[in-house]
Amino acid sequence: APVRTVAAVDLGAASGRVMTGRVGPDLLGLAEVARFPNIPVTVGATLHWDVLSLYRSILEGLRQAGPVDSIGVDSWAIDYGLLDADGKLLGNPVHYRDTRTDGVMERVLREVPAEELYPATGLQLLPFNTIFQLVAARDTAQMAAARTLLLIPDLIGYWLTGQIGAERTNASTTQLLDVTDGKWSAQLATRLGIRPAILPPLREPGDRLGVLGKETGLGGVPVTTVASHDTASAVIGVPAQGQRFAYISCGTWSLAGVELDAPVLSQESRLANFTNEVGIDGTIRYLRNVMGLWLVQECQRVWGVDDVEPLLRAAAQVTPLRAVIDPNEPSFLAPGDMPARIGEACRRLGQSAPQTQAETVRCILDSLALAHMSTLDDAQRLSGRAVDVVHIVGGGARNDLLCQLTADACGLPVLAGPVEATALGNILVQARSLGAVGASLDDMRALVRATQPVRRFEPQGSQQVWREAALRLDRGGPDHSAA
Ligand code: LRH
Question: Which of 153, 350, 374, 474 has its CA 20 to 30 A from that of 144?
């Protein structure tokens, strides 16, 4: 098979990037072409994504990438733009951290009980799931004018090619997709006052989407549908062998879980707030969202500290497990004074608040490691899938302290990397469609294993201290992760 060059557009909540990949049967080379910040904008009282700025940066990045055989786009999940009857975007997409969904989930659950919603959709309850955002927007003029809902990568794909559709892995994060028959749940939508007609036809990762429109100035290049949910692409890029592995896709969020062949829809799974997101080739990502490095990022913003490395070095010197919090406390979700909120959470749990930046960061990292531990414990128990190793991919794989703490807490070796698992997953799906790599998920992972550096962290110390630290969180009352 010939070597192919493809471009991956990967939009994260904090930054976007355009990467190129050179791919062949024994080759997987990655180069970063452009990286740009993703800065939300408050207009009125609403937090928006600056989607035109992202689009401009994408086009610039693609221009710099030079000639490629195909382009694929992935992004964070759940958020969407609405098109009117002329195919024009209605307003700027709203950020999932916006407050418009406050209290909406609770209202919806009175209309459709969780006992019914969970087996139908398989999704964990996150207050900002697309379904709740749509209910929050139900009576707006914008919604009345809306004809088509496009998730962010589908919106970018539409602007690039003129083609409309809903890529399946990302569609599965809306809570409007039926996890059993794989179709949009028109009935559920209608029941909640969401017009099913706005939900576009589903398409599959690997499908040819279209070609770049003339007005992009980059004409004629094919665009391939990838696993457009960034987490779905990241899990493709996990260099795992066999099935006995857990993954943590660690960036703004820590998405921690296992890969299964079928969803787990039990009552226990629902109460533990585990999600069944659709992956490539019929796989299920059985995981729970842990509020990840957002907690550090938001501290950095408040402190005005751009470089995280000195903070991490200082945090490594702090006494371990001085104070721990539940990262999934709802109060951490919105932008704001994170250091103060962390301090309050510590005090509420009967611990003294961190006094320095280093102590605050250490508190967050200890707490994330602890959340990784309980999440992966739950994932194994609820799914029956035992694991021998934890793969950390994404930006968090660069964070040695977090990788080591996670190994210690889980009592398992951590394999860290690749940092760019999402872009690799994006690239591999395109390459597969072009016939440049083996056809199976195992083939794709074998190529990642053979070509990408991975670092190993052995568990140290006794897990007992972590189990004891976990007990401190019980004083906080019921498990917040279950909403
Ligand atoms: C990670 C992610 C995650 C979603 C969140 C909104 O970037 O896609 O899987 O839960 O963003």
Answer: 153
Residue 289, ligand 1, Cβ within 6 A: yes
Contacts with 460 (C-beta within 8 Å, 6 or more apart), sequence order: 404, 407, 408
Among candidate residues 69, 98, 154, 230, the one labeled active-site is 230
Q: What pLDDT score does 219 carry?
A: 82
- Name the residue type at position 352: S
Q: What's the helix, strand, coil split of the chain in %, to 5?
A: 40, 20, 40
Judge whether 18 and 30 are in contact, CB under 8 Å.
Answer: no
Pocket test for ligand 1, best of 175, 253, 291 (most atoms within 8 A of CB): 253
Catalytic residue flag (residue 84): no
Is 80 exceeded by the pLDDT of residue 69?
yes
| CB 443, CB 26: distance < 8 Å | no
Q: What is the ipTM of this complex?
A: 0.99
User: Closest residue (by CA) to atom 9 of ligand 1?
Assistant: 231
- Write the residue with the smallest CA distance to atom 8 of ligand 1: 76
| Helix residue spans in 254-356 (DSSP H) | 267-271, 294-303, 309-316, 338-348
- Partners of 258 in the β-ladder: 286
Interval between CA 217 and ligand 1 midpoint (Å): 31
Tokens representing residue 236 in the block = 């493709």
pLDDT value of position 482 = 44
Q: At 122, is the secondary structure helix, strand, or coil? A: coil
Residue 464's CB is within 10 A of a number of other CB atoms, namely: 9
Cα-to-centroid distance, 352 and ligand 1 (Å):
32
